[in-house]
Amino acid sequence: MKVVSFNILALGLAVLSGAAGCQEKPSAFPLNLATVEQVHSGRLSFKERGDEIFVSVIDRFGDGHIHILNYQGQTKPRALEALRKKQTELEKTESSR
Q1: In 3-state terms, what secondary structure has residue 94?
Q2: Which of 38, 54, 57, 63 makes the best surface tag, with the fewest CB within 10 Å?
Q3: What is the pLDDT of residue 17?
Q4: Residue-wise pLDDT tens digits, 51-86
Q5: 83, 36 in Cβ contact below 8 A?
Q6: Rounded to 5 degrees, what are φ and ψ at 49?
Q7: For residue 77, what are the CA distances in angstroms to 2, 32, 44, 61, 73?
Q8: What SS3 string covers 52-71?
Q9: Residues pairing with 67 in the sheet
Q10: Is the dihedral of CA 94, 24, 7, 30 positive or negative?
Q11: Angstrom distance (rounded) from CA 68 to CA 29
Q12: What is the pTM of this model?
């Protein structure tokens, strides 16, 4: 199980970092900020590319997906601020376990 979790994490990070010339491609449905707020465990990372924000969500079991963030109704800076806040919250939750 740990090997599978690590492989999923490594794959997600490789895609987000653009390793080997890969372009970011979402593997799951688009997320909105309300859905991001409902995440209470796991890890979250994100990357900007043009007007798009790609969000990687890895749950407590190691399953990860990359989503495009639908931040309609918000400015991009506000959306990024909300993602940073959620990322910090999840890191604190993870480190307290």
Answers
A1: helix
A2: 38
A3: 44
A4: 999 999 998 899 999 999 999 999 999 999 999 999
A5: yes
A6: -145, 105
A7: 36, 15, 17, 31, 12
A8: EEEEEEECCCCCEEEEEEEC
A9: 55
A10: positive
A11: 8
A12: 0.70
